[in-house]
Amino acid sequence: MSRARHSLRALLDDPRVPDQVRESLAADFQQVELMLNKLDQGQLHIAVFGRVSVGKSALLNALLGHEEFRTSPLHGETRDARAAAWREVDAGGLYLIDTPGIDEIDGETRERLAHEVAGRADLVLFVCDGDLTQSELAALRRLRAHQRPLLLVLNKADRYTREELVLLEQTLAERVADILPAGHIVTAAAKPGERLYLQIDAEGNEHELRRRPPVDIALLRERLWTIMAGEGQTLAAVNAGLVAGELADQVGARLVEVKREVADKLVRGYCVTKGLLVAINPVPVTDLFAAIAVDVGMIVHLSRLHESPLTRAEAGSLVRTIAMQMALLMGTVWGVHLLSSLLKTTSFGLSTVLTASAQGAVAYYSSYVIGLAANRYFAQGRSWGVGGPKRMVQEILDDLDRDSILAEARSEIAARLRNAV
Ligand SMILES: Nc1nc2c(ncn2[C@@H]2O[C@H](COP(=O)(O)OP(=O)(O)O)[C@@H](O)[C@H]2O)c(=O)[nH]1
Ligand SMILES: [Mg+2]
Predict the structure, then answer these.
(1) Given the CA of residue 58, which atom of ligand 1 is nearest to it?
(2) Which of 73, 100, 138, 406 has its CA 20 to 30 A from that of 260?
(3) pTM here?
């Protein structure tokens, strides 16, 4: 119980969860908060689930002892999930949750609701009123997959004779044999309909009488009491732990994704800086030094993002390793870089901006490759992988559409230059 609570709390307070992720998971986090409150207050939730008109609302009313939820022979009386405290059992801690029928709302909403109900409920009463349909079986399987404790309630028992009921129970037990453990089926009559009875009086005259058979939820009530008293809090804690686990997986996946996005933005930012630096700087040789300084800064920044911080010296040697492979693999581009760097001093004129941005674009491109390679290196836990740095740089170069990146870099740098002048 306290383990579950701790893991939930830890997740909520984890400073590594970026605001962006926190926002996109806001709904889930809210569920965690609810779950925490539930645990703190020792709350337990029992939810009904099932097709429309099987008597879900009626069943909860019967348990509560009053007409809390609206029931109707018409479709769609219950529109969303609602809760009521079941005080008879526990003063304030136990809630009964009514839900719409799984066939009275559209597919997407149904999935969401199923997920919500399954996520919140500590026990699900899957209600049916006869043999199970394919869609009921599918829904039952889905709940089971959520590892939710389930009871199958066969309601409207008053509509069957004793013999029919025995047979029906057997059929149901076989159908759900692979979904539910034995003994998880309970019969009930939440709101029996009127029946016609024949009464013969003292004179031997027949009278027709309309009577309602008595409500019969004794089995279900007894079952619920036992479960709640015996394992209620354990169920709640297990449930909270499961939700926390699911959430941790989701957060983990989102973190990886966001990290990739942030890293890409970061790399591009440095690329533009470097491109601009190279384009603007009038002294050609210092271009290269300044450019390397930018790359080193980028690597240090990336290493922090990956929570594996490097010193500038270490980052410098990483840049050298990658740049060396690049030089070997694409000597011509580096040649152009140097050449254009030399050319720049002599090409002052109308086309300065264009020439400068062309050189800047090359610088941008080389930084981009360095950034991608470093990123991969960090993502792999500071490893180049089996083929070493050469293979990695080769793969990155092969994957990149050089011309479009150069064009993009050029227009971006030219735009900034124009703004700057
Ligand atoms: N014969 C009989 N009818 C029932 C029983 N429980 C509910 N009903 C009727 O079934 C209809 C649907 O009930 P409701 O609770 O609104 O179903 P829900 O859509 O599952 O919430 C209503 O007309 C109820 O009176 C029962 O145990 N026996
Ligand atoms: Mg209802």
Answers:
(1) 15
(2) 406
(3) 0.60
Output the residue whose Cα is nearest ligand 1's atom 12.
53
Concatenated DSSP letters for 170-205?
A: HHHHHHTTTTS-TT-EEE-BSSPPPEEEEEE-TTS-
Q: What is the CATH number of domain 42-216?
A: 3.40.50.300
| Helix, coil or strand: residue 411 | helix
Residue 263 clears pLDDT 60, i.e. is over it = yes
Residue type at 125? L
Domain ranges of the chain: 42-216, 257-420
38's tokens:
């539930």
Whether the pLDDT of residue 256 is over 80: the answer is no
Pick from 17-21, 158-162, 280-284, 322-326 the range whose average pLDDT is largest.
158-162
Confidence of residue 317 (pLDDT cuts 50, 70, 90): very high
Structure token pair of residue 412: 């971006």
Chain-centroid distance, C-alpha 91: 34
Asked if pLDDT for residue 179 goes beyond 80, the answer is yes
Residue 160: phi and psi, rounded to 5, are -120, 150
Q: Which ligand is nearest to the CA of 55?
A: 1
CA distances from 366 to 126, 267, 360, 412 (A): 61, 11, 10, 15
d(CA 363, CA 323) in angstroms, rounded, equals 12
Tracing tokens 């209620």 back to the chain, one arrives at: 232
Distance CA 317, CA 56 (A): 68
**Residue among 247, 270, 204 at smallest CA distance from 22:** 247
**CB distance 119 to ligand 1 below 6 Å:** no
Residues recorded for the chain: 421
Contact 72 CB / ligand 1 (< 6 Å): yes
Distance CA 172, CA 333 (A): 73
**H/E element, 186:** strand 185-187
Alpha carbons 293 and 103: distance in angstroms, whole number: 63
Q: Which of 66, 80, 191 maximizes ligand 1 atoms within 8 Å of its Cβ, making it the mutation to test the pocket?
A: 191
Which ligand 1 atom is at minimum distance from the Cα of 215?
27
